[in-house]
TrEMBL record:
One of its GO terms (biological process) is salicylic acid biosynthetic process. Belongs to the isochorismate synthase family. It comes from Enterococcus sulfureus ATCC 49903. Gene3D superfamilies: Anthranilate synthase. Residues 176-429 form the Chorismate-utilising enzyme C-terminal domain. This is isochorismate synthase. The keyword Hydrolase does not apply. Its EC number is 5.4.4.2.
């Protein structure tokens, strides 16, 4: 591919971030994964309505997680001159922003991180665009050669079929987890206890005979789990992926959008039963109370950076295996905080941490046996052109390494929670990733 760069590229300073984009045609039925070289860092993102899909491979600039992250990204944004080429900064925070620790399950992903991708495919219903990004070299000719060499690596490759067989499926630490649930209940019901809710997570281990193929898992999730964000973040053979129903925050320069998701019940086997289950959820005092806690907190934490908040009626969000109480919340954005500062302000919502936030997160840190890593954490992207982006909450997810997947599920513990019932709720929440990894036979007994 011959690339003719406009003259504006001649004015770029050495080591400055620079991008070049061009349209591409994706063959029908082909995966975006097959069009880019597989580099150490990769990222995939698709919205619930499939209006936007991103697939990135390779890192041009890495951003470790610390308090200066919003400022460092803002500095790159000021230097980025190609406002018609919407490249992104992609990645994830760890769940515990104040105590991110190394984790054998998450390996190189344990503490999160962000990056500007070298290769990025942006797909909408109207068009598909390749965005190549690099740091400027010493000459205009060198830059042209760099983009030409990068473009040579963008082509359709043969894809693996993703077929695999299950070796082992087991819930991890069930007895200890149920004991922790009871500890949480005892904490909440204590006289004058300020803690109203604690969200506890647990794990399931899957071992396959062959290495897991993220592309195949995401393809199945796309077919099986409508109305969810699909995400995938990989660094050095550790990958975190899932199909989450929960948006944390989306923002343009003028408006912010979020949603309160809490409370859950299984889908019915028939339409009549499904409607009945949904109504039971809407009428449940426990679940509506849990949902209202989330709504109230989001509104409270949105107030510093929005002019006014609009709350839509509580309704049901239905996924294949589970349905939730759901309410859309939006507001007119004020300029005080950057988008990433808003993300840190909202995370974790009561649906993933508890209420009040600081006390619940500290209780989790002190009592929960597992290391959550990126589970329940903010994952998404922020634009390098403007201070806007979109993040989801990393639930209905798993971390994969070679032939192992560790699945995560959590539930909100309140005063009347019963440990075995909470275990059963998390079993339902394991189902999306079980189906994604094992296919539609996931519900069969493999133990």
């Amino acid at each position: 591919m011959s690339i003719n760069l406009p003259s504006v590229y001649q004015n770029i300073k050495a080591q400055q971030i620079i991008s070049y984009d061009y349209p591409i045609t994706i063959e029908e039925g082909a995966s975006l994964f097959s069009y880019l070289p597989k580099e150490d860092t990769r990222f995939f993102w698709q919205t619930p309505d499939q209006s936007i899909t991103y697939y990135a491979s390779g890192s041009c600039v890495d951003f470790p997680i610390d308090d200066s992250l919003p400022t460092r990204i803002a500095t790159y944004r000021k230097q980025y001159l190609f406002h018609d080429i919407p490249t992104k900064v992609m990645g994830a925070y760890p769940f515990d922003l104040d105590d991110a620790r190394e984790s054998k399950e998450f390996g190189s992903l344990a503490t999160g991180g962000f990056f500007i991708p070298r290769y990025l495919i942006e797909q909408t219903p109207e068009k598909t665009t390749v965005i190549l990004t690099t740091t400027a070299g010493d000459s205009f000719e060198e830059l042209t050669q760099t983009f030409e060499q990068m473009a040579k690596h963008v082509y359709r490759r043969a894809t693996v079929d993703g077929k695999n067989k299950l070796m082992l499926k087991q819930e991890i630490g069930v007895r200890a987890w149920k004991e922790t649930v009871q500890e949480a209940v005892d904490t909440i019901v204590k006289q004058h206890s300020p803690i109203k809710k604690i969200v506890l997570a647990r794990q399931m281990q899957i071992l396959m005979y062959e290495p897991l193929q993220a592309q195949a898992v995401l393809t199945r999730l796309q077919a099986q789990q409508p109305n969810t964000y699909l995400f995938f973040y990989e660094r050095k053979d550790y990958s975190f992926l899932g199909a989450t129903p929960e948006r944390l925050l989306a923002a343009t320069t003028e408006v912010v959008y979020t949603a309160a998701v809490a409370g859950s019940i299984a889908r019915g086997k028939t339409l009549e039963e499904d409607v009945q289950f949904g109504q039971t959820l809407l009428d449940s005092a426990k679940n509506t109370h849990e949902h209202q806690i989330v709504v109230d907190r989001i509104i409270r934490e949105l107030q510093p950076f929005v002019d006014e908040v609009k709350i839509y009626d509580r309704t049901l969000l239905k996924n294949r295996d589970i349905q939730h109480l759901y309410a859309v919340i939006e507001g007119q954005r004020l300029p005080q905080l950057s988008f990433l500062e808003m993300i840190k302000q909202l995370h974790p919502t009561p649906a993933l941490g508890g209420e009040p936030k600081a006390l619940a997160v500290k209780w989790i840190r002190d009592h929960e046996v597992i290391n959550r890593g990126l589970y329940g954490a903010p994952i998404g992207w922020v634009s390098l052109v403007a201070d806007e982006g979109e993040f989801a909450v990393g639930i209905r997810s798993a971390v994969c390494h070679k032939n192992q997947a560790i699945l995560y599920a959590g539930c909100g513990i309140v005063a009347d929670s019963i440990p075995e019932e909470e275990r059963q709720e998390t079993q339902i929440k394991f189902q999306p990733m079980l189906r994604g990894i094992l296919g539609d036979d996931a519900s069969r007994n493999h133990d």
